Amino acid sequence: MSEQQRIYPVDERLAADAWIDRDRYQQLYRQSVEDPEGFWREQADSLSWSKKPSTIKNTSFASDNVDIRWFEDGELNVAHNCLDRHLDSRGDQPAIIWEGDDPNDHKIITYRELHQRVSQLANGLKSLGVGKGDTVTLYMPMVPEAAMAMLACARIGAVHSVVFGGFSPDALAGRVVDSQSRVVITADESVRGGKQVPLKDNVDAALTREGTDVVESVLVVRRTGGDIQWHEGRDRWFDDVVDQQSTDCPAEPVNAEDPLFILYTSGSTGTPKGLKHTSGGYLLYAALTHRTVFDYHEGEVYWCAADVGWITGHSYIVYGPLANGATTLMFEGVPTYPSHGRIGQIVDKHQVAILYTSPTAIRALMAHGEHIMDDSRRDSLRILGSVGEPINPEAWDWFYRVVGNSRCPIVDTWWQTETGGHMITPMPGATDLKPGCATKPFFGVQPALVDNEGRRLEGAADGNLVILDSWPGQARSIWNNHDRFVQTYFSTYEGVYFTGDGCRRDEDGDYWITGRIDDVLNVSGHRMGTAEIESSLVAHESVAEAAVVGYPHDIKGQGIYVYVTLNDDVEPSDELKQELKQWVRKDIGPIATPDVIQWAPGLPKTRSGKIMRRILRKIAADECDGLGDTSTLADPGVVEDLIENRHVRI
Ligand code: PRX
């Protein structure tokens, strides 16, 4: 039987103790779509509200009126829900277990300690003039201070914008300006895989860019003690500001629809978009998905191996687990350092029960052979999770067999920055698993498949994935640009949310995500717009034109393949290829570095001048036999040249 047809039935022993078993899933799912108000009203009781909402759902996906509100007259504080309300019952329980890049470095922070530190930091932010509704940019390593900073903002009603620490100064500057942050929180350096990354230097460089003079203060966590420049009057050591503050900082009640954070992500066109997530619906959704999809039980150690710079880190390192009073493990390093067995060693060291990681991390380990897991037992594991991209059946199998000792169900969770939390996913006690399949919708989620004209496809079908109605965790808008929000997600097909993903539904009604159908790349689970990379390249003096596509890559899932047309007076050379790779790396960040550059004397264009990416994707994938109709090209000759000089992988 092929791997794709293999089914891993629910483990009945696990189901007996699970929050959600088969019957409960059926019953709750039905209720959640037939009576969303009733369902979410009941669920909302799991949060602590300073003013209980009376209105539950008030949402419209109509393209002339996209307006999404949940619990709109409710008031709560997110940090109170993640900290204060746990103090009586679990004040001395670890909230965060921090595992450093160096295996000899770890720290345990209890709920009481976290509460104190967050309160002090919140007071510190106030002393710098930060108040309700102000934005704060975080450019941080994976250290507990990152979670503290997020929660401190939430405590005073400020809005955080976390920028992934791998982004360049320019990328950081763009996000600081767009969000108009008056305060930036960073560290001297981050440490990953034994190497330092100069975060503070990057902030210094970013803050020389136009428009960044809005920033008044930079708070610097001392992580490595490495050399940094100091800007008197602007820069402050984190500890100097925080240590002297009172541990008493009342949590500011905010409206359920007040913004909690902005998170920038790439789209198919233009600059990254700042998705706006709000407080009540987001927190409820993050908490409920965390508890049910990972079947989290009191006292378990849960580890999401993502970075807080991505939505996965927001919802499943910080907000979901802490709202549930869980112990969340935060890992500073990389899975392959100092040895390839690090993941297993961490699992054993902290007795991790739930491990949530990405297909690209699994593939990176697989390449080194099964023996790399020999120095760990991993018998504390109960549940595994995957996120970020479709997981190929070989990686699924390795994760299941080698990491999970063939004992632990894998929840393959499909979702997006925009969705706030899991959307299509198995639940360990309820769903039979199929390797590579995200299976069934979460409560309240109504997926549908449509063809390119927007016609609904029924039964087993392949199409574009849309969501028919709102769920509480959904982003409400794009920061400063609601029109773009409407345009991007609600104008392709009227009245529904368009995900940008292709998807197949099989005979059992299970959903298989097939990947992006727009010009968005997914490289090692990191999302990137082809347009961003193209505009970086054409800013180089030698480049006339550039087209970027993804191609299948064994470890990264997708690699970045670039076609470059040079200016007439420029000679192509290998040195220039290296220079262009470095150029993009420096401009956007290491994750955007092209894998392959091919010189293109011309690009295949229609007579109206549109680049035919379909053809470029085929050539990059080395599928030159199926190029389809090229007769509409202005100059079909260019295709011959591109095929002849394509990069062929061995
Ligand atoms: O294409 C889908 C893919 O990642 C995209 C969302 O990327 P981002 O907003 O960065 O969020 C990643 C973490 C939630 C989706 O449009 N994707 C994410 N998870 C899966 C996936 N594709 C297939 N299977 C998944 N489990």
From TrEMBL:
Catalytic activity of the protein: acetate + ATP + CoA = acetyl-CoA + AMP + diphosphate
EC category: ligase
GO cellular component terms listed in the entry, alphabetical order: cytosol
InterPro entries: Ac_CoA_lig, ACAS_N, AMP-bd_C, AMP-bd_C_sf, AMP-binding_CS, AMP-dep_synth/lig_dom, ANL_N_sf
PTM comment, free text: Acetylated. Deacetylation by the SIR2-homolog deacetylase activates the enzyme.
Binding site for CoA: R192, G193, G194, K195, T312, S524, R585
SUPFAM superfamilies, A to Z: Acetyl-CoA synthetase-like (SSF56801)
Entry-linked Gene3D superfamilies: 3.30.300.30, N-terminal domain of ligase-like
GO molecular function, one term: AMP binding
Positions bound to Mg(2+): V538, H540, V543
Co-factor requirement: Mg(2+)
Pfam families hit by this protein: ACAS_N, AMP-binding, AMP-binding_C
GO biological process: acetyl-CoA biosynthetic process from acetate
UniProt similarity note: Belongs to the ATP-dependent AMP-binding enzyme family.
Biological function: Catalyzes the conversion of acetate into acetyl-CoA (AcCoA), an essential intermediate at the junction of anabolic and catabolic pathways. AcsA undergoes a two-step reaction. In the first half reaction, AcsA combines acetate with ATP to form acetyl-adenylate (AcAMP) intermediate. In the second half reaction, it can then transfer the acetyl group from AcAMP to the sulfhydryl group of CoA, forming the product AcCoA.
HAMAP family listed in its UniProt record: Ac_CoA_synth
Name of the molecule in the record: Acetyl-coenzyme A synthetase
